[in-house]
Amino acid sequence: MADFQPLMSHPHPYPHDLTIPQFLLDSPSHPLRPTRLAGSRWLVDDDTSRAYGLEEIRERVERVARGIRAQFGVGEGDVVCLFSQNHIDYPIVIWALHRLGAVVSCANPSYTAGELTYQLRETSSKLLFTSPSALPTALAATAEAGLFSQERVVVFGPPPPEPQLDGQGCFFSSQPEPTWDTKDGQFLTVQQISLLGWHSPPNYVEPRGPMVGDSVAFLSFSSGTTGLPKSIAIAHRNLIANVIQVVAHNRTNEEGLSREDRFAMPGEVALGVLPMYHIYGLVVNLHVVLFSGLALVVVPRFVFKNILESIVRHRVSHLYIVPPMVVMMLNNPLTKSYDLSHLRFAMVGAAPLSREVTERFKKQFPRVRMGQGYGMTETCTVVCQFEFQKESVNGSAGKLIPHTQARIILPSGRPAGPGEPGELWVKGPQTALYYPNNKAATEETFLPDGWVRTGDEALITKEGDVYVLDRLKEFLKVNGFQVAPAELEGHLVVHPYVSDAGVVGIPDDMRGEVPIAFVVLSPEGKAAASGAGAAGEGNASEEIKKWVRDQKVRYKWLEGGVVFVDAIPKNTSGKILRRLLRDQAKEIVQARKKGMVVLAKL
């Protein structure tokens, strides 16, 4: 069976002779790049509305690069860790480090000290940028890792003041912010590094050459939903290629499209709430957005009410979101209190979204062109995405983007045909390089002929629609049948009693294993469950199990039961941390064996 091919392509090459900032900041005339309005905003701070345009970004990147070089001696090949929530200077620091030839490793700001220590050691980082809220953890991890002194910790402070122009027409924020004081000492801020760079003469040579794009730009980490995160080496050319592929797929700069069919119009705005440390936020929500001519509102953290207010205040038109955000927009009554009529695009990624939830979203927001995309850190994000100019297929992750091939491999090793589920393999210019320090995992995932094994179960229809079913290792085997937890979760969250849900398996002597559902009740569900004490909880549980029985085949029924919990454990990209649910499930099984009652936590 032939490989699956994208339905569209483009003639433009993927450059190997550019780094990411050279491509994004220094090459404004790419044929796929829309022309921006003069003086348009690029980055906007959500709280203060302080904005950077292109010229100020380029100037600030240069000054920060000089400051880092002068203060810390960072140079080509050095690894620097960013351990921070989103900040308007977060991409500035990334691009400054890339100007120096350094490698960036972005860390989840909700990590514990032990988790951050692991990443620092895995990457041999030599410098750390962090946010004020994460500073105590950063200091503890720095001490534990023992790689560098705490004088090499830099803090993202408030957005800098509005700039002035000096005699050479350069942007210059002359007001220094105070050194960041803590009980443990004093720490330089990004603004102070910028001011140091202002007073420093040119002190580095930016890497250039015909193959500079082959050098490593990021050491990103897998989500670690089933084990320890793995470091993934991503080259400059990988990210650049994925930006070009997505922009071509969106037909962003194509002539002759109507206003409604044009992906991005001058002056439109995207919400930057996805964490920039995550590959989806880093590549798509940051670099694709800016290359497409949109302004990006940088949001430090997700608070639902604040997000709604930001969408209205900044007249956001484009949303890049994850399934939990979709469920909140549908189930939280606050949504109806805000005028969101200026939204016209929403892409959902990082985890599968069920057909049922997709249908509900489209009904509630009929003006928004909404669909899914799919990718992973090992593919430097996007493999497939819905087509903006067409109605997306509910439940599908869209179609392959240009110059991306796919295979579906059956357990027998035979390539599958249309409609047959199996493991998804992909190949394209966006795929990452390898897992550093992990030869065995590299050989298992990154195959010699350029294919990447995703570890995801998927099928591709004859029309080219990709359906990602679940992680292969997360499938349940019930009476020999495969059950995808994501399918049951997508079905559960459309029940009025359910706000969120997570499904794993528990052992069963007769059937191998059976599904158990962890459920966060909605206000309506809580009212039903609390109406008659334990009997009320039982009635709510039975109602939820009946919801599955009525619409799913028998082996998918929730024979393991329903357990009410306060929250479903997830990482910040929205992926369920199933290993934590499995740990809870083991405790429940042990309690049941001892005849103990498992109480709901409302």
Automatic annotation (TrEMBL):
Q: Which residues form the AMP-binding enzyme C-terminal domain?
A: 487-575
InterPro entries for the chain: AMP-bd_C, AMP-bd_C_sf, AMP-binding_CS, AMP-dep_synth/lig_dom, ANL_N_sf
Q: Which domain of life is it from?
A: Eukaryota
Kindly indicate whether the keyword Ligase belongs to this entry.
yes
PROSITE patterns with a match to the protein in the record: AMP_BINDING
Q: What CDD domains does UniProt report for this protein, alphabetically?
A: Firefly_Luc_like
Q: What GO terms are given for molecular function?
A: CoA-ligase activity
Keywords, sorted A to Z: Ligase
Domain called AMP-dependent synthetase/ligase: residue spans: 47-435
Question: Pfam families under this entry?
Answer: AMP-binding, AMP-binding_C
Q: In its UniProt entry, what is this protein called?
A: Phenylacetyl-CoA ligase
Lineage runs: Eukaryota, Fungi, Dikarya, Basidiomycota, Agaricomycotina
